[in-house]
Prior knowledge:
single chain; alpha/beta
Amino acid sequence: xxxxxxxxxxxxxxxxxxxxxxxxxxxxxxxxxxxxxxxxxxxxxxxxxxxxxxxxxxxxxxxxxxxxxxxxxxxxxxxxxxxxxxxxxxxxxxxxxxxxxxxxxxxxxxxxxxxxxxxxxxxxxxxxxxxxxxxxxxxxxxxxxxxxxxxxxxxxxxxxxxxxxxxxxxxxxxxxxxxxxxxxxxxxxxxxxxxxxxxxxxxxxxxxxxxxxxxxxxxxxxxxxxxxxxxxxxxxxxxxxxxxxxxxxxxxxxxxxxxxxxxxxxxxxxxxxxxxxxxxxxxxxxxxxxxxxxxxxxxxxxxxxxxxxxxxxxxxxxxxxxxxxxxxxxxxxxxxxxxxxxxxxxxxxxxxxxxxxxxxxxxxxxxxxxxxxxxxxxxxxxxxxxxxxxxxxxxxxxxxxxxxxxxxxxxxxxxxxxxxxxxxxxxxxxxxxxxxxxxxxxxxxxxxxxxxxxxxxxxxxxxxxxxxxxxxxxxxxxxxxxxxxxxxxxxxxxxxxxxxxxxxxxxxxxxxxxxxxxxxxxxxxxxxxxxxxxxxxxxxxxxxxxxxxxxxxxxxxxxxxxxxxxxxxxxxxxxxxxxxxxxxxxxxxxxxxxxxxxxxxxxxxxxxxxxxxxxxxxxxxxxxxxxxxxxxxxxxxxxxxxxxxxxxxxxxxxxxxxxxxxxxxxxxxxxxxxxxxxxxxxxxxxxxxxxxxxxxxxxxxxxxxxxxxxxxxxxxxxxxxxxxxxxxxxxxxxxxxxxxxxxxxxxxxxxx
Length: 752
C-alpha cells in the first residue's frame, strides 16, 4: 500500500487486527476497527455508511495527530451531532489484490465543534514543532505540526501500524522483524539529491514555473531535460505572454489564451492579471466572459470546476471527494439559468464561477487552491442548446420543484460537511424564481451570499453614496426609479432602505422613495401576481405602462437600469432627467455591454456633461465638443466580493448579514477621491482594486468580531497584518531542498 503526503499536516489512523488481546475485542466479538472490512475511524464529514462498525466501545482509540482516550461518545462519529470538522481519511483500492491505498488529508488547523456548545477548541498550527494538547472530559486531542515536505513511503501490510511523520524519515511500529523498505536505500538507483516522484507528477511539476526552474531545482526534482535548457525570470515570462496576447485579434481569443495559461502556469496567470487589472478584467470577466460562456462548448480545454448533475443526487459527498484539493474555503456555484443578461446557458454557465474565483485571487488575494467553482446541471430550457450536438451538458429541460430543492439541500450540506461550516458559498446567476427564496432559506444556516442580489446592491449603493458628494445633498433628498424589478433591483432597493434608515428615515417613508418598473409597467398596490419582494415597493398610484411616463410623473433624481434591456434609457428620458435636475444620477448597470440601458457617450452628450453616470460594463472615456473629458465609473461587483470573501475567510465568519454589504459600500465610496469625482469616476480606479479589497477585508473582519460572527479566536490584535498574512502572492516558490553542512571535525567517520 502507498501512503502519500500532499500538503502540510498528516492525519493517520491506526489499523488494528482482529485479536483477542485487543481491548474491547474478545472471542466471538469483532474489533471496533477491522482491516478485512476496510473499516476505519471516520469523522463527522463522512457518511454513516463509511463509519461501519466504529462505534463506542471500551478501549483506546488513537490517531497520531488526534486521538480519543477512553470511550468516545457514539454521537461524535456521526453527522449532525458532534465530531471533527476538518480531519478525516479516505480509502481506495490499491493496484494489487489484497492491498489498500489510503490518501491522507492534510490541514493547517483543527477544530472541535459541538451543536450545543459551539466551538469547543481550535488550534492553528504555527512553526513550533512541539505537540499541542488540550483535555476535555472523556477525550484527549493532540496536534503535531509536520514539515511541508512531500514524499512517498511504501510499506508491507502490518498488523499494527503507526506512522509518525518527520522531515526525512518515518518511524514504523509493527511486528518484530517486519520489513520496511528504506528511504535512504531505495530499490532503484537515482541521482544524488533527486526526489522520488512519479513520472506523471514530474510532468505536472514542469507546469509550476516552466523555464523559471533553476538547474539545481531541475536536478533535485528529476525534471532536467523535460524543460528547454533556458532559464527565465518571471518578468521575462510575463513579457513573452504579453507579446503573444497582443497578437490576438478578438477578445475571445485573448480569453482563451489567458485560460490556457491558468491551466499551464497558475502563478504566472495571476502575475499577468495583477500586472494590469484594469486591462485584463474585461477579458477574464464581463463583458468577454459572457461571450465565452455562449461558446463554452468550443472553448472548453480542461476542467476547471466540479460539474454536478441532477442525476448525482444522493452521491454529492462522493463527488466532492473527487476534487483534488481539500482545504477549500470558498465555493462559487451556479445552475446556469440566468447568465449575466444572456439567459439560460445551462452547463455553459461554468465560465462564471471560474471567472469569479479568478477575481477572488487577482483582486482579493484569496489562495486559488482554496477555491472551488461548481456548476449544478439540472438541464436547460434553451432550445438552441438542446438541439446543438456540441452542447456538453444534460440534454433535457430543467428539473424544478422538490427534486431541485433536494439537490440544493444536499449540496449545501455536503459542502459544509467536507470543508467546514465556515466555508463561504457564493450563489451566482440563479433565476429570479430561485435566487431570493434560496437566499432567505440558507442565509442564516450557512456562510453564504448571493452576489447578484447583495454584491450588486453594495456596488450600486457605493456609487450613489459617492454621487452624493457631487449633488451636495443627503440620501434622503433623492428619489429613485428602477428599470427592472429582479434580483439586482431588489437587492439595491433593500440596501438603499437600510442606508436611509441609518440616516434616520423611517422604513415606510424610505420605501416610498423607490419606484420600480418591470415588464408590466409601474409596480403599484392592487396589481395582481405580485411576489413578496415586489409588494414591499408597490406604490399607491394608478398604473403606468412605460418607463418614459414614470420618469415624467415621478421626476426622480436617479434612474437605475438593471433589466438588461438595451437602449431602455432613451434620449427623451435622458433629456427629461437633465431638465428636472442639475446633476441627475444615471446608472446603466446591465451586463454585458450589449445589454446596457445607454452608453456613456450618449448620457454625457444628451445631458451636456451634467449626468452622473455609472455602468455595469466598461466604457471608454468620453470627450465632449467643449473639450471636457469624462471617465465613466464601472459599477463592477469585483470591487465587492473579493474583499468580502477575504475578510469572511480570515475570520471564519458563520453568517453574512446585509449590514456587512452596506459597510462595504461605505468603504468603497470613501476610496473615491475628489480628483476622481471631477473626472466623472464614482469608483476608485481598477488599478487600485487589490488595495481596496484589502481595506474592505479588514473592515469585514472587524465587523465580524464586533458582532460575534467570527469563529477564529483569539481575535487578532493587528487585523491588517493578519489579513496581509493570508494574501496570495504570484511569486514563485523555491523547490530547492534545505542544504547545509556540519563542522568537518563533527563529521569524522569512526572506524573499529
